[in-house]
Amino acid sequence: MLKAILFDLDGTLANTDPLHYETWKEILNNHGVIIDHKSYKQYISGRTNPAIIQDLLPQLSTTEAEELANYKEVKFREIALNLKPLTGLLEFIEWLEKQKLQKAVVTNAPPENAEFMLDVLQLTETFPLVILGGVMTVGKPDPAPYKLCLEKLEISPEEAIVFEDSRSGIKSAVGAGIYTVGVASTHEPESLLEVGASIVINDFSDEKLQQLLDRRKFQVN
């Protein structure tokens, strides 16, 4: 029986990837590292800042890496003041509330970013539970963030559905044993299916979403 819907944040509640891409592109270029959209999706999208910097700028000290990550997120927040929810999201949330389903966000975003984005999207009160994988011992793609969320909600993997836009996030959710819906806002559908998404939707107005919720195995109480 379906009891909870779990959402990633960046790229799932709002399409923030173009902003993250431009910010990372400028910062990495200043350090002599050139990225394009393909390398962004491969090395950056959905990953924690420490992992990104370790892979792309391994010469930086721990302190330098932390300072760079903080600077990057400040620059991101400066240009993300007009974020809009992904198409159909608000209507979907309204439906979830009518069904009395639990809701949570599971994200690799730094705490300041998560708070900022939920505030800009006016969704702070909507999600009383926010799991911050970026400050855990391990974040996505490890399943630990989603396992912690299940524990906090006191539900089993079979009682939840996850919505994720990145390969890293899908690996995390699938690794936790949760039925996972890919959101093709940042990656091609085939790329998301390849790492374990059960279905892929374009956004929350996609008719495939309603078809999923209408299936018997996901009927709510």
DSSP strand (E) fraction? 5-15%
Global Rg: 17 Å
Based on secondary structure, the structural category is alpha/beta
Q: Class of the largest domain, according to the CATH hierarchy?
A: Alpha Beta
Give a description of the structure.
With 221 residues, the protein is an alpha/beta fold. It has two domains: 4-15 and 84-218, HAD superfamily/HAD-like (Rossmann fold, 3-Layer(aba) Sandwich), CATH 3.40.50.1000; 17-79, Putative phosphatase, domain 2 (DNA polymerase, domain 1, Orthogonal Bundle). It has ten helices and six strands, in the order βαααααβαβαβαβαβα. The chain has a six-stranded parallel β-sheet, sandwiched between helices. Helix 1 crosses helix 4. The protein is globular, with a radius of gyration of 17 Å. It starts with a strand and ends in a 7-residue tail after the last helix. The mean pLDDT is 94.
